[in-house]
Amino acid sequence: MAPPLVIWDPVMLGYDLGGSHPLHPLRWELTWDLAGQLGVLDGVERFAPQPATDAELATVHSPRYIEAVKAASGPPGTAGHRFGHGLGNDDNPVFEHMHATAALIAGGSIAGARAIARGEVARAVNIAGGLHHAMADHASGFCVYNDAALAVRALLDAGVAKVAYVDVDVHHGDGVQAAFYDDPRVLTVSIHESPLSLWPGTGWPAEMGRGAAAGTAVNIPVPAGTGDAAWLRAFHAVVPGIVRAFRPDVLVTQQGADSHADDPLADLNLSVDGQRASYRALRDLAETAAGGRWLALGGGGYSVVRVVPRAWTHLLATVADRDVDPVTPLPPAWLEHAAAARPGLHLPTTMSDDRPVDYEPWDADDGAPVDKAIAEVRSRVFPLHGLDPFDPRD
């Protein structure tokens, strides 16, 4: 297989919401350093994209919003003003060159989508992407431009008939769902912590799409505290069956690493091992359901030293078919870099949390806490795709 399109430009590190903000570019810096030291992309060239143009951004975002982002992207001191459109608050502070860096990240995801649509590559990955909360007319959840929605739109505009989007971030993929809620060509699937306990308070099983798109929005809210076994149980009980039934031409995925037990902004209990298992499952799904065509994006993740670099190095390795053994020791030079970046932090020593990732497949009669969510989403959505909600084989 030809190598994937690996999208990165160090200028993307300029997407910096401030030193105390949870979304810190150090997570990308340490990921590329770790991936490089482990050799997972040896011989694979990084592709530096062009920023998305205003016309490209306008396929998802309103022109008024794009102009507001530009106006808020001035020199230091601009941050003292309010610009509307969700810009300038604690979640979405404005910063110098905000439009340029957000457009560059969006341009990367668009470029990956177009390369797949043209048949130039089967896979592409943009770990700076996955900014899935941005809405058509406002910033939201640390996200300025919704590169995931823009990539899906680029695929459709390039003639791709159907796209499946699967989001494993701990937060609901609300911005992408909203962008395609009435478009039957796009399946959006989000597995996330329950809206009862986590922002943005959406992503209920009853959110299923509108009109001709009924059944193309699929939401799997899992309870706070859900760990690897239960999360994987829910994933495998819903995601592969519904995606295969949809028969997409391309799979787009968002791999937010904030489902980890160490993440400070959420309440799930996954390990790096469980996250790695999800990446491998998504790779298998791309092969079996989408002809191998797969665009993988980053997303959330706020344990920026202990978790994200290991998780997304596994992601890069998975996309490149160069899987890293979980017992692989972390390189001493990387540990020195991480220690210097965040002094006093207790660092892991391997690419694993030494957690088992075995799970019991879902059965209609099981009574684990996560099974209520599984049963509800299957009962609501599976019949709309010709699937039996009570048959574990579907």
Strand and helix map with partners:
Layout: E1 5-7, H1 26-38, E2 46-47, H2 54-57, H3 63-71, H4 98-117, E3 123-126, H5 147-157, E4 163-167, H6 174-179, E5 186-193, E6 217-222, H7 228-246, E7 250-254, H8 272-289, E8 294-297, H9 308-319, H10 332-341, H11 371-381
Parallel strand pairs: 1-2, 1-3, 3-8, 4-5, 4-7, 5-6, 7-8
Helix pairs in contact: 1-9, 1-10, 4-5, 7-8, 7-11, 8-9
Supply the number of structural domains.
1
Strand percentage lies at 5-15%
N-to-C SSE string, H for helix and E for strand: EHEHHHEHEHEEHEHEHHH
Order of neighbouring strands in the sheet with most strands: 2-1-3-8-7-4-5-6
Portion of residues in helices? Answer: 25-40%
Q: Can you tell me the CATH superfamily?
A: Histone deacetylase domain
Give Rg in angstroms. 20 Å
Largest sheet: 8 strands, parallel
Regions with little confidence, pLDDT below 50 for 5+ residues: none
**What is the fold named in CATH at topology level?**
Arginase, Chain A
User: Could you say which overall geometry the principal axes of the C-alpha atoms support?
Assistant: globular
Number-wise, the strands total 8
For this structure, what is the CATH class?
Answer: Alpha Beta
User: N-to-C terminal Cα separation, in Å?
Assistant: 30 Å
The secondary-structure class comes to alpha/beta
Count, helices:
11
Based on the coordinates given, report the CATH architecture. Answer: 3-Layer(aba) Sandwich
What is the average per-residue confidence, as pLDDT, rounded to a whole number? 96
Give structural notes.
The protein is of the alpha/beta class and 394 residues long. It has one domain: Arginase, Chain A (3-Layer(aba) Sandwich), CATH 3.40.800. Helix content is 34%, strand content 9%. The chain is built from eleven helices and eight strands. The radius of gyration is 20 Å and the shape is globular. The model has no long low-confidence stretch (mean pLDDT 96).
